[in-house]
Automatic annotation (TrEMBL):
Pfam families recorded: HipN, TPR_1
Chain ranges of the Hsp70-interacting protein N-terminal domain: 2-40
Domain of life: Eukaryota
Ubl conjugation in keyword set: no
Official protein name in the record: Protein fam10a5
Keywords: Repeat, TPR repeat
């Protein structure tokens, strides 16, 4: 077998280990069906219950600053295609300040890329609750 193709396959397996939802895409349907025909199990999005933060927490100025720092770092991670890191940072941002609707909308965009539509819907719903005038959560 061509060593270059083996290397590409190894890279794909590494990516799959980091993000199993990659098999849920239409492009990977052939592989998902083959794995299932051999008894393998590929699971769809089941991450409907996401961490949202305590909306009753009293937010300090320090918490607001930290949340904004996490928001900036999460956007950087998203721009670098570090999807899990971006998700974790967005989550941390609204644990610090659960009233940042834009952060919920941004995390929803990451969940869409991770093929987790239920989680994205939950985040968009929360973003709309926080700011009904925001258009961004309606995109996802």
């Amino acid at each position: 077998m061509d060593p270059h193709k083996v290397h590409e396959l190894q890279a794909f397996v590494k990516m799959y280990k980091q993000d199993p939802s990659v098999l849920q895409t239409e492009a990977m349907r052939f592989l998902r069906e083959r794995m299932e025909s051999m008894g393998g199990v590929t699971e769809p999005d089941t991450d409907a219950s996401q961490k949202m933060g305590n909306e009753n927490v009293e937010i300090t100025e320090e918490m607001t600053d930290q949340a904004n720092d996490k928001k900036v770092a999460s956007t950087e991670a998203l721009n670098n295609s570090e999807l899990q890191k971006a998700t974790d940072l967005f989550t941390h941002a609204f644990k610090l300040n659960p009233h940042l609707g834009i952060v919920h909308a941004k995390r929803a965009s990451v969940f869409i890329k991770l093929q987790k539509p239920d989680a994205a819907i939950q985040d968009c719903d929360r973003a709309i609750e926080i700011n009904p005038d925001s258009a961004q959560p309606l995109k996802w």
